[in-house]
Specification:
Strand order of the largest sheet: 3-2-6-7-11-10
Number of domains: 1
Oligomer: single chain
CATH architecture: 3-Layer(aba) Sandwich
Radius of gyration: 16 Å
Strand content: 25-35%
Number of strands: 11
Number of helices: 7
Order of helices and strands: EHEHEHEEHEHHEEEHEE
CATH class: Alpha Beta
């Protein structure tokens, strides 16, 4: 499938903040599928990059637990015991992409709580949210950064949009962050740049 291209105001602002950090050694966490171009861009800026493809990990059947009725459900405790194990206040920025829209429901709130703890005070978190269910057009994507503020989105099969967050849901989910700045794109994606 061909890559879609979109201008990303929130990304441009986040990258600008990273570039203006001076000689401070910065750490960024990328929650999407890794891309060599993104790693090269960040390391070229003197940024240390950590990557966890959290959505792909959530598909691992090893995190399923048998319930009393014989069914199986994803066990958030087991999942987070083995994923996103970083120190508090470790990251200057987190690229969350559109992971919350595709992640199983039981992981969304614990994920946001964990990200807040891992993010430094005044650190930035960039997340995308679909504004409507566009069916097959709402494919999960690998995000390739093209500086200063463009993304090439490479569709990845196998993930289904789980939910649509409206502004109120987003504000409630990230209520403990100091600020939230919304950018609405023409492609039915809402970008939110949050500061802890």
């Amino acid at each position: 499938m061909p890559r879609a291209t979109r201008r990303c105001m929130g990304l441009g602002e986040l990258l600008g903040n990273l570039k203006n950090a001076g000689d401070r050694k910065l750490c960024v966490l990328d929650l999407g599928p890794t891309t060599p171009a993104n790693i090269a861009l960040m390391t070229g800026m003197g940024v240390r990059v950590f990557n966890e493809d959290i959505l792909r990990e959530s598909q691992d059947p090893g995190y399923l637990a048998k319930q009393a009725d014989g069914s199986t459900q994803l066990d958030p405790g087991k999942f987070f015991a083995e994923n996103l194990n970083y120190a508090a206040d470790q990251f200057d920025a987190i690229l969350c992409w559109d992971v919350p829209d595709y992640l199983p429901e039981c992981l969304v709130k614990p994920l946001v709580e964990r990200l807040q703890v891992m993010l430094k005070l005044k650190g930035h978190l960039l997340a995308f949210f679909h504004t409507k269910d566009a069916g097959p057009e709402s494919l999960y994507s690998r995000h390739h950064i093209v500086p200063p503020d463009v993304l090439e989105m490479e569709p990845i099969q196998g993930f289904r949009l789980q939910r649509i967050f409206n502004n109120r849901h987003i504000e409630n989910l990230f209520k403990d962050f100091a600020s939230r700045k919304f950018f609405l794109g023409r492609d039915n994606i809402r970008e939110v740049l949050m500061v802890r």
